[in-house]
Amino acid sequence: MNRIFYRSAKAAIVCYDLTDGESWDKAKEWILELRAHERDCLLYICGTKLDLVNENKYLRRVKQHKAQDFASGIGATYFETSSKTGENVDALFETIIADFGARPSNFELSDSIILHEKTSPYGSSCVGCPCWLN
């Protein structure tokens, strides 16, 4: 995953398919990469397609306790959800909101952004025009 997708992230949800072991392996790679670069990011691991697993337990390729133990070991929160039925989707987002709100540092303004006003060589009517931004 390109770092541009998660640079300075305050929270992240990494999803994988409960019925696909390869998606779990790939998700673990992304999770470890994210954790290595964004240590303060709230991290949520989400197994998807819970409805399929509930209908047929033999479709599950990742044991819940295995994923839960992995999440606990890296300080992440674990959920299993179904987009089809909506099961646990609200709980996931409510938890993220509560966790995010409990961290005062998430509301501090950064003074590291510096804006410079540019003037157009063609007058004020052309400000923002791609012809001079290049």
From TrEMBL:
Organismal lineage: Eukaryota, Metazoa, Ecdysozoa, Arthropoda, Crustacea
Keyword annotations: Nucleotide-binding
Name of this chain's protein: Ras-related protein Rab-24
GO MF, one example: GTP binding
Family: Belongs to the small GTPase superfamily. Rab family.
Organism of provenance: Artemia franciscana (Brine shrimp)
Domain of life of the source: Eukaryota
Keyword presence, Transmembrane: no
